[in-house]
Amino acid sequence: MEMINTIGRRKSSIARLYMKSGNGKIIVNGKDYKVYFPQDHIRLAMIDPFKVAGIDMEYDIKVNVKGGGFKGQAEAIRLALARALVKINEEVRKPLKDKKYLTRDARVVERKKPGKPKARKSFQFSKR
Q1: 51 lies in a domain?
Q2: Which of 14, 16, 21, 76 could form a disulfide with 8, with the two C-beta atoms 3.0–4.6 Å apart?
Q3: Is residue 105 in some structural domain?
Q4: How many domains does the chain have?
């Protein structure tokens, strides 16, 4: 199997994923993914496409991710990983699509409006 290259985005995070056959090593920005994402629930959500597709982690994965926080980065990696698994085997598309792992979540932070302290919050109203 040759190298598979996919991209995933979430909030302001962009993840470029390179996958090739190997023994299940995942490297994120030069570190092992267990070191890069110390929270257990974030790690499990990131590699969940493997469980949903029913594929063993028999691939070496190298990820470059930038921008955003750890949750946005993990979800960007999840989208890139799901896209890579579909490139390998088209039959896993349906279960991944049912879990919405192939959908780009386009929700981003709303911008601050002029004359307001935050995006929608207003200053306290004073009647007198």
Answers
A1: yes
A2: 76
A3: no
A4: 1
CATH at residue 78 = 3.30.230.10
The answer to whether position 86 is within a domain reads: yes
How far is the C-alpha of 78 from the C-alpha of 85, rounded, in Å? Answer: 11
Report how far residue 51's alpha carbon sits from residue 26's, in angstroms, rounded to the nearest whole number.
Answer: 15
Residue 57: the pLDDT is 87
pLDDT digits (tens, 9 = 90+) for 93-113: 999 999 999 999 999 999 999
Pairing, β 31-32 against β 26-28: antiparallel
Tokens matching residue 124: 């306290």
Q: Grade residue 45 by pLDDT with cuts at 50, 70 and 90.
A: very high
Residue 112 inside a domain? The answer is: no
